[in-house]
Amino acid sequence: MACWYGAKMRAPLGDFADVRTAPEALDLLPAPVADAVRAWSGPVPADHLVFVDSDPAVADTADFVAAHGSELLSASANCVVVVGKRAGETRLAACVVPSSARVDVNGTVRRHLGVRKASFAPHDVAVGESGMEYGGITPLGLPGGWPLLIDAAVTDLPYVLIGSGRRRGKLIVPGKALLQLPGAEAVEGLGR
Q: I need a labelling partner for 34 at 20 to 30 A (CA). Which of 87, 90, 139, 178 fits?
């Protein structure tokens, strides 16, 4: 959880000038993410989800880590949208893996979704269907009915840095909190 020092909140990871709980940052989140924060329930309270504001120019993992702290590299995860196809039916899903790993789309994802072919969703589909900015897609606020596959290594992290739905800002959440999201399932070997 974020800590308060005097009047200033400090993130559990990294070095950030602007840190607030996600419920205090609803105006900085896209609508689907803000709605997910408002509706948050479960054993990890919403005020344990932390928003850190940042420059969109350093949104990519390597640049972000260089700007805000090297410890973020081992605690960062990426959320990518995948599309699976079988017998003319198309199915979208999201996958969350450590930022140092690649999603095993043609193996683990394909088998887990029960599809004949799986691939990364095209940019316009990922953005259009999620309601989020490319490069900032987060597992919070994804469309209902989407499977959310999370590499088990991510759920084991005390805190994980993920997108905020925009290229500006990130969320820092307890890894186990991701399992509270609709459709979430921990999957061994999702990232390689």
A: 90
Q: Which two tokens stand for residue 43?
A: 């054993």
pLDDT digits (tens, 9 = 90+) for 108-142: 999 999 999 999 999 999 999 999 999 999 999 99
Enter the tokens of residue 185: 């399932």
83 near 125, Cβ under 8 Å? yes
User: How is 102-153 classified by DSSP, letter by letter?
Assistant: -B-IIIIIHHHHT-SEEEEPPHHHHHHHHTS-TT---STTPPTT--EEEEHH
Residue pair 126/16 in contact (Cβ under 8 Å)? The answer is no
In sequence order, what DSSP letters do the residues of 16-29 get, joined into one string?
-S-EEEGGGGGGGS
Residues 6+ apart with CB under 8 A from 139: 79, 94, 96, 148, 150, 162, 178, 181, 184
